[in-house]
Structure formats: C-alpha cells, structure tokens
Amino acid sequence: MSRDYVQRFVFERLNVRGRLASLTQAWQRMLDGRGHPPAVAGLLGHTTSLAVLLAANRKGSGRITLQVQGSGPVTLLVADCDAALRVRGMARSLPGATADRSERALLGDGRLALTLDDATTGQLYQSLVPLEGESMAEIFEHYIAQSEQVPTTLRLLADTETIAGLLLEKLPGADARDADGWTRVSQLASTLALEDAREAGPHDLLTRIFPGELLRVFPPDPVEYHCPYDPSKVAEMLCQLGRDEVEAMLAEQGEIVIRNEMCNHEYRFDAAAVAALFDGVARGSSS
User: Fold this and answer.
1) Residue 34 phi/psi, 5° resolution?
2) What are the DSSP E strand ranges found in 71-123?
3) 74 SS3 class
4) Each residue of 219-257: b (16+ CB within 10 Å) or e?
5) What percent of the chain has pLDDT over 90?
6) How far is the C-alpha of 130 from the C-alpha of 27, rounded, in Å?
C-alpha cells in the first residue's frame, strides 16, 4: 500500500462522512531543496493536506488550488491537487517566520482563495474569504462552513517528514440519528497523532482514532507529488517571444534564467542554447 493516500469513509450509524490523508514520500519530495524553516513547512503542509482532502471529494472533476495570502512573515502558500490526486505546492516567507509565533501571527491579515478548474466544462470557479481563525484548521473550517454550508471538523498535522489531515462533515439528519454522535466523533478526531499517521495504515489508524464506531471504508486512493522538469515548455515560451527579443535579453543578461517557483525548477539558456533553439525552429519552418 502507498504511504501517500487519501482514505474515504463513512460512519454507518451516523450521518457523518470523512476523509483521512497521509503523505510522506510525496511531502518530502515537495520540500526537497527548498530550505523552508519548520514553521513555514508546517503551514505549507497544512495547506497541502487540505488541498488533497478537498480534491479527493471531487475526484474526476478537475484541479483544486488553495492559495493563502497574508501580511505576516508567511506571505504566500499555494497547494494544488488534480483529479488524479497529483499534488504540488510552494511557500514564500520573510525573516521572522519562526516556530515561536502562532500560525495566525505568521500569516497576519489576508485572504484564502480556492479555485476549481472544472475539467468537464473548462471553466474556472473561484471563491475568496478573509482569514478568520487563529490556526490554519480554524481558517479552513470557517471557509468550508461558509462555502459548503456543512459543519466541519478538521485536524491538520505536519512536520518535515509527514503531513496528515482528517476531515469530518456533518450531513443533514445527523442529530436525528444520534444526538451526541457529531460531538463524540469530533472529539475523537482530535486524538489523531502525526506519529500514528506515519506508522499505521489507514484502516488501523481509523480504528485507533474511532474505537467503538462502526465504519465503512472505501479503497484508499494513492497520492503522488507531480511537478515534472520540462525544458520543452520553457523553450516553447521563448520561441513565442521571438528571436530578436530573446537575443536582446541574452545580450543584456549574458544568460537567460527562468525559474519555476511552484516546482522549484530552474531553466538556463546560454548563447549556444538560444542559437540552437531558434536554428532548430528555422529548419523546421523551411522543411
């Protein structure tokens, strides 16, 4: 079984559904080479977990992108996840993003944006809300409750090795089936520990979190980090600019350097590479 997964489940005796996510290898690949301080990595991990949890509920309908912009030391968090549960993300921060500050102090004032790129219709849907809450979980809970009108419990955990998220949604009629059920399982959700998520499989982990509750679990969905290095797309962009403009840039800078911040990739084109690129285009046009 993949160590990177989303596990969907329902409580058989309650009108409550949930999703559990745990990422280790995919998360470590996302962080590789970025040098984020632990506090910044933690906030990015929370954002990434939620993007995966939300995408798992809309599997097959497109890409979900979460973007948190703040006025504090952590100025930007971005995570997106597509219909195949391929995830990527990035963070920007300033000096002062230290672990002794609360999550809200790290973010300051700002806004949360969620964008859904609907693969079926080809349209983009976006919602914006101010940051309300003292933690990332509270901020996200407020957003989900406001946008989807569903009471939500959210647990988010992260370090530089593993991230985990647990999302419960209270469905209509839940109180009629069990007046205490929602309160009970919400309290139990708070017992999720990152070390348990690292070591236990999803079924064992859910059994540990919700002892005594009758659960129906679905096959876990694997999650992977996907941000390929693709020089051909960068070359295509340079070709669209035209040879004269690219050579002018080259003369001014000595080398063209293009950085993909989302994927942490850097593309470099020196004079020889630029000449080979446009000579190849010219040969292709004349043939």
Assistant:
1) -95, -30
2) 74-81, 86-93, 110-118
3) strand
4) ebbebebebeeeeeebbeebeeeebeebeebbeeeeebe
5) 62
6) 27
200-258 tens-digit pLDDT: 999 999 999 999 999 999 999 999 999 988 888 888 888 898 888 988 888 888 888 88
- CA 69 to CA 72: how far, in whole Å? 9
48-77 as b/e: b if 16+ CB within 10 A: bbbbbbbbbeeeeebbbbbbbbbebbbbeb
The two three-digit tokens of residue 149, written as one number: 């009108």
Q: At what angle do helices 271-286 and 243-253 cross, to 10 degrees?
A: 170
Distance CA 266, CA 179 (A): 55
Tokens of 59: 């599997």
CA distance 72 to 51: 22
Q: Which own/partner pairs from 262-265 qualify as long-range (CB within 8 Å, at least 24 positions apart)?
A: 262/78, 262/88, 262/89, 262/90, 262/227, 263/88, 263/227, 263/228, 263/229, 264/32, 264/33, 264/34, 264/90, 264/227, 265/227, 265/229
Query: Do 62 and 83 form a contact (C-beta atoms < 8 A)?
Result: yes
**What are residue 158's DSSP bridge partners?**
163
Instruction: Look at residue 60 in the predicted model and tell me its pLDDT.
Output: 65
Residues composing the chain: 287
